Amino acid sequence: MLKSRILAATLLACLSLVALPAVAQDKAADGRIIVKTQDDLPRFTYQIDMKPSELLATDDATFNAFASRVEADIDDMLAKYLIEDKATMRSVLDLKGKIALLKGNDSTAMKTIGQERALEEKPDAKLTNGLRDEAMIHATEQAHASSGEVYELAYASYLESAVSQLPWDVVGTNLKSLKRSALIAGTGRLIGTAQADFDPTYEANEGSISQNIGASLIYMRYSIDRWVPVADETAQVLSKHIAANDVRKPDIWEAREVTLAESDDLPPVVVAIWDSGVDLDLFPGRVHTGATPTDTTGESGIAFDLQSMPELGDLQPLTDAQQARYPAMQDDMKGLSDLQNSIDSPEADAVAARIANLKPEETEDYLETLRLFGNYSHGTHVAGIAARGNPAIRLVYGRMTFSWETMPPKPTVELAERSAAAMQAYVDWFKKNNVRVVNMSWGGSPAGYEPALEKHGMGKDAQERKAMARRLFEIGRDALFAAIKGAPDILFVTAAGNSDSSNSFDESMPSSFVLPNMLTVGAVDQAGDETGFTSYGENVVVHANGFEVPSYVPGGRTLAKSGTSMASPNVANLAAKLIALDPSLTPVEVKKIIVETATPTDDGRRNNINPKAAVAMLESES
């Protein structure tokens, strides 16, 4: 999912904004302020006397003194605020644990690991959270050192013993993820990121950084000092364990799949992929071409560029240089996908080595290019999932342009208002062209605006940027909500998000919207088990396969990708098939069938769609 990038690119704004009025906050019995959303939390700013990249490489005493300032603010926040959201508390505790490890306070680090696990609700995370940190702590105790050959051997021994006692069917995916992190661990990329991303931001803000950058520096220092030295041992232990235990989970989806036939001669159903663009050449006979072209729209869709100005074309235009790099970057995208899924391949080996060995001066260009082509291919991949097995589908695009460069567009009031108008223009085009289903595999939140404001040196400190971001967020949120609400004849299907957090606490849009013509989708794997990344919330009422889902990228290559971005079009796919079978269905009726025929799990956390059951219900009621 293109989490936060979307509206960070297209719904940012601000030059001079009036301060928001103070809002009364509820308090707990102990006097602490009750935190209801992520935006209720305070923001912190740190004045430092060296560039972030220099701070990252400085001596332990200097860096730990900075980490202690961050720690003091965390403790002060916990003393004043009651954070009931478990995901947020886990992230706070994790940062405290990393600071403790850097300072050699292993008992504090162990305590935070236990606290985090107690807050975990997903079975796999409850067993694996803090596993590598725990191994580091036990190795330090055994070796009486936190580095060196004896320490590394003790780390590997503990990790091997720990993972061997875990139930593979529960934790296998998480262990694969940890192995992937180990394979790409490297110092050069971290230093390069600090130089390219954080140093200019520091200079733009006259020597200050937000707690977001501060936390990132702590994680980077932890990676350089503690994680990179044992990454090879981690990969070796987990590779051995995975090879011995990796039995692919049973696939529940094949038996549930519904495939419509050309011979059924079903009426066409227009489905919009509101995303980064679609390579329509890959879907012959399944593209809607009935729209009347204008100076700003095509016969099969509507598009806006990075500045929310109208633009023609189903795919984002690439420069000649970018086009020349695309074939090789497809190999890297495949390699990353294979790494994610622990598939041994030449592409996986190559991309792991490339990322792990990036030099600081190579980092920015490589990561920007990877983001560019990840964005470029996203909408086509989503479209392939939505169109699968449905000859009646007629695809159209609502192409958005996402920022891929380290420095995002400068926020302006004009851009925010233009972006809000674009949101309405997309939906107006969908309504005019009889779109029945829209898939939205993207999202944004108030906090997502703050980094761009900081990078451009806007606002006197992090607290002021939070207020500015809130105002900007509301411009986009209100416009998007009104546009969707004003299209009651269209079913909008959206991805829950990939942050393993509550979409309502994060105020994610559009996934937190509650509307009768919206359906928010969480991700499960091929066996119907909850993925570690999927976000959740009261309005996440159905789940679909979002793990290793194969589909096309521009040009026609097939790649498997994971994310709620892939789960959402699986539901859009089902919705379009139901409408093809009965065009009289309203969005509310389609939504009701999908939800009521989904299979609830015993723990009540998931409600997995069942296309065959949905079609059977439709036919029984006809």
Cα(first) to Cα(last) distance is: 36 Å
- What would you call the shape? globular
Proper CATH architecture of the largest domain = 3-Layer(aba) Sandwich
- Which strand order does the major sheet show? 7-8-6-9-11-12-13
Assigned CATH superfamily of the largest domain? Peptidase S8/S53 domain
> What is the beta-strand fraction?
5-15%
Summarize the structure in words:
With 622 residues, this protein is α/β, with parallel strands linked by helices. The chain has helices spanning 5-10, 52-56, 60-80, 86-103, 106-119, 123-128, 131-143, 149-164, 168-183, 187-204, 211-245, 253-256, 320-340, 346-356, 360-387, 413-432, 450-455, 462-485, 503-506, 564-581, 587-596, 611-621, and strands at 2-3, 33-35, 45-47, 81-83, 208-210, 269-275, 301-303, 393-399, 435-440, 442-443, 491-495, 518-524, 540-545, 549-552, 558-561, 599-600, 607-608. The chain has a 7-stranded parallel sheet with strand order 7-8-6-9-11-12-13, with helices on both faces. Helix 10 (187-204) packs antiparallel against helix 11 (211-245). It comes from Croceicoccus pelagius. One of its GO terms (molecular function) is serine-type endopeptidase activity.
